[in-house]
Structure formats: C-alpha cells, structure tokens
Design brief:
Layout: H1 2-11, H2 19-26, H3 30-43, H4 61-74, H5 78-85, H6 89-111, H7 117-129
Helix pairs in contact: 3-6, 4-6, 5-6
Length: about 140
C-alpha cells in the first residue's frame, strides 16, 4: 500500500503532484531521481523488488531510494521512516548506507571530485551574477 501511494503521488503518469511538487519534496527533478534509481539498481540488486518467503513483495526500489534520500535531504531519523513508509530503523539505515556507497562508486569521477579551473570560473561568474562576488573559498558566502 505504501508503494502504491508513493507511485500514485509522485511517479505515475497522472500522479497527484506536479513536477514542481516533486522537485520541492525530493530536492531534485524526477528524471534525475529515475536516472539515479536506474544506476543504483544496476550496481546493487538489493534495490530491486524482492519477494519474501511468504511470497509477499518487499520494499520497492522507489521506496528504498525515497527513504534514503529523505533521510539525507531533510535529516530525517530512521525512526520517523517507520511511521511514514513502514520501514524499520535497521532497514532504513542499511538502505541509506548502501545508497551512499553506490552514489560514491557510480558518480565519484563525474560529480564527487575537486572542481577544475573551468568549474571554478563558471561558479564565480554565476555567483557574481547573483551579487556574491568572490564567494569561492567562503563557506558562508559573506566575504
């Protein structure tokens, strides 16, 4: 039921929430979420739908990714995920750890690297256009 609600709210063609709602809730666009989920499933089969011994479906890949991303984006506790998604604290923490490991493994070379000079120039120009000159090197952007 939790999976069906999640899909009806955010992922089905006629979902209840708009693309803007999705971006606000998940802190990313839907196509980015889907790409991340596809990449994660290729690396780790634990993010695929599994069936338990009673022949009942386990948590869906969308549920696993949603829980982990909500914990990261909002600092939600694993306990709170049980109430919202019906996922135990242990399962939430394990899912979060797996997702973080996979993100580093898959995206390290492309996104998790030190910026090069081209990146720095682009960021400096973007910051200047927004009224924050010389923001690189200042975590609080106040200098």
């Amino acid at each position: 039921m939790s999976h069906a609600n999640l899909m009806n709210n955010y992922f089905n063609l006629n979902s209840m929430h708009t693309e803007e709602d999705f971006r606000r809730r998940f802190q990313m666009r839907r196509h980015v979420f889907e790409r991340l989920l596809r990449d994660v499933q290729q690396v780790n089969p634990d993010f695929r739908q599994k069936w338990n011994r009673a022949r009942r479906p386990g948590f869906s890949p969308h549920q696993n990714a949603t829980v982990a991303l909500q914990m990261m984006a909002y600092g939600s506790s694993a306990d709170s995920m049980d109430e919202i998604h019906g996922m135990s604290e242990f399962t939430c923490l394990d899912t979060l750890e797996q997702l973080c490991d996979i993100i580093v493994q898959v995206y390290k070379n492309e996104y998790l690297r030190e910026p090069n000079q081209e990146d720095l120039n682009r960021l400096i120009h973007k910051a200047e256009d927004r009224g924050f000159p010389s923001m690189i090197g200042s975590l609080d952007c106040m200098h």
